[in-house]
Amino acid sequence: MTIIVTGGAGFIGSNFVFHMLNKYPDYRIVCLDCLTYAGNLSTLAPVMDNPNFRFVKESITDREAVYKLFEEEKPDMVVNFAAESHVDRSIENPEVFLDTNIKGTAVLMDACRKYGIKRYHQVSTDEVYGDLPLDRPDLFFTEETPIHTSSPYSSSKAAADLLVQAYHRTYGLPVTISRCSNNYGPYHFPEKLIPLMIANALNDKPLPVYGKGENVRDWLYVEDHCKAIDLIIHNGRVGEVYNIGGHNEMTNIDIVKIICKELGKPESLITYVADRKGHDMRYAIDPTKIHNELGWLPETKFADGIKKTIKWYLENKEWWETIISGEYQNYYEKMYANR
Ligand code: NAD
Ligand code: DAU
């Protein structure tokens, strides 16, 4: 079994690469990643010498490079994590989101059609469903919830999902799609809420909370997401969408306060800043389908997952300090200067 994992040098993709190489010692895992600001080859250092692993630095938007890789590897499956993934960046500059998230997905699927494939899996997001109101805790996203996006990021992911479904219906491509809630855990890029707050708190820097901090996200430990995708690519029904979520809704402000408490830092570091444009209020996934069909349930309680995550950031300071001292610094200063 040869699986091309795109975006495997990023947060969830790298955790998935580790999960697959550990669990399936006879599988070949080929990581295709062009190493944007969010891709980090040092993350993959532990597997670089594994004979069942290959890293290829190319973009999923480069048709020639993608076809060449398919010719060389003759993959059985493709799991597409590669994407521009940060909502704030999509608000600043949507174009690259359209290129990678939409065109890149089409190029990968064209390669799958041309060379044949057992499964193309699209890693999507609960953000394609838009948001839910705070005063309706009875509402959840199901796989039937209409697509109703808010940001350029979520719109590009929704467009990709629609293309994946079109390639299934039109060309009979054997696809599956998963739509997951917010992940957290090791190797999470420190522009996202949890790792940003950990890094800033450790450096005694202000903790910038957008708006009133009332927005709700449904947090899932990254390993649980990887296990869900593993189940879907092996046992999920072709043509289907599977929601993945932890039934673990929390407000942003509560998350930041937990991080302060775990690190022994004062809540006076919390700084309320201007809200994100078009900020989604609440995400909440109903994961009944994947539970009933594939027996998946989240295994990591948030109280344990956040402790593990903070421990990882404490023990791997070099990983994130290198990031925040580089080009990222310019982004951070620009994003937060006027808030
Ligand atoms: P990330 O930003 O940490 O990593 C993205 C990776 O994709 C990086 O390694 C980057 O170099 C690579 N990449 C970007 N453009 C590429 C291109 N054109 N060609 C090849 N590689 C490219 O993202 P993440 O948080 O790990 O998210 C992975 C996937 O999961 C994305 O598709 C995202 O939409 C989805 N998702 C993320 C979350 C979350 O909470 N992080 C939740 C649900 C779904
Ligand atoms: O729901 C899945 C999505 O989760 C994925 O599709 C995205 O790729 C991923 O980035 C994530 O999107 P969010 O926008 O929810 O994540 P982010 O970490 O950027 O923000 C989480 C919440 O925290 C959100 O309400 C905005 C808020 N926030 C974020 C940052 C970076 C702050 O209050 N302050 C901040 O500095």
UniProtKB/TrEMBL annotation:
Belongs to the NAD(P)-dependent epimerase/dehydratase family. dTDP-glucose dehydratase subfamily. It catalyses: dTDP-alpha-D-glucose = dTDP-4-dehydro-6-deoxy-alpha-D-glucose + H2O. Its cofactor is NAD(+). One of its GO terms (molecular function) is dTDP-glucose 4,6-dehydratase activity. The keyword Lyase applies. Its EC number is 4.2.1.46. This is dTDP-glucose 4,6-dehydratase. NCBIfam families: dTDP_gluc_dehyt. Residues 4-309 form the NAD(P)-binding domain. Keywords: Lyase, NAD. The lineage of its organism: Bacteria, Bacillati, Bacillota, Clostridia, Lachnospirales. It holds the Pfam family GDP_Man_Dehyd.
